[in-house]
Write a structure and sequence with these properties.
The complex is a heterodimer of chains A (about 150) and B (about 130). In chain A, about 0% of the residues lie in helices and about 45% in strands. With about 150 residues, chain A is mostly beta strands. Chain B has strands at about 5-10, 25, 30, 35-45, 50-55, 65-70, 80, 85, 90-95, 95-105, 115-125. The chains are: A mainly beta (about 150), B mainly beta (about 130).
Chain lengths: ~150, ~130
Amino acid sequence: MDYGKKASQPGYDVKTATDKNLIFSTKFNSLKISSEGATTLSVPHSTTATKTIAHGLSYAPSHYVFVKELTYGGSDYWICDGGGAFQLPIYDPSGATDAGTMFADQSHFTVYTDATNLYIEIKYQSYAPPSDPKVFDIYYYILIEDNA
Amino acid sequence: MPDYGMKISEDGEDVGTTANKNLTTSTKFNQFKIHAQGTFTVTVLNGLAFGSTTINHALGYAPAMLVYIEETAGNGKKYMCMYKLTNVVDAKVDTSDLVVEVYYPIGSPASGDQVHDGYYFIFKDNI
């Protein structure tokens, strides 16, 4: 390609810098965001719920999804300790202290796309249910790039 | 759709007609911008089953992030968090920190200090 634009990191000559030392180059494809946003998903205990978000792209796009402010402790065993936001997919790390059940029947958080929608699927499971249903805060990015 | 901006197509694609996914760059679309990146380690100390490392990002909001780490210390195979094979490796972010955690199965604590190598990206983009 003998056209385009590129910029180098500080301290590197843009004409001689290796590709990994560029901060930007139109020579390479990049992850472009088609849409993004915040949403919620209400999940009753011991059930699986799915959030469906139409993307309007007509092909299955790549995606990048986070579930926010998860907590652990007391009777909640559906995610590891501490608050914060986790990237999906997530499987219940409590399996590390309860070997054998992690993938069998505890919480899981999965995400996938098809040619129409982004699907965020949450199974909410704990040994002793707290407030029910649980409302999960979600932030999603749907990318222009397909995943096929 | 703005009627100004810049777009560059992949080789062999006509920039005037190609689909968006065949553009290498377009100012029509937002892109992830890297705030910080680098190596880190998580050490699970001898006899323990948990270790963590905190990386401050100073953004004041929870940013998107991407983290890779060895699920098995020292084997050089870095998995994107979250992942579980034998151990659990996960990453979480809040308004001040990125925290990477490693859990070993109960009854299988670290034999000697176990150092898990990792690499992280923190983006400017919020979640």
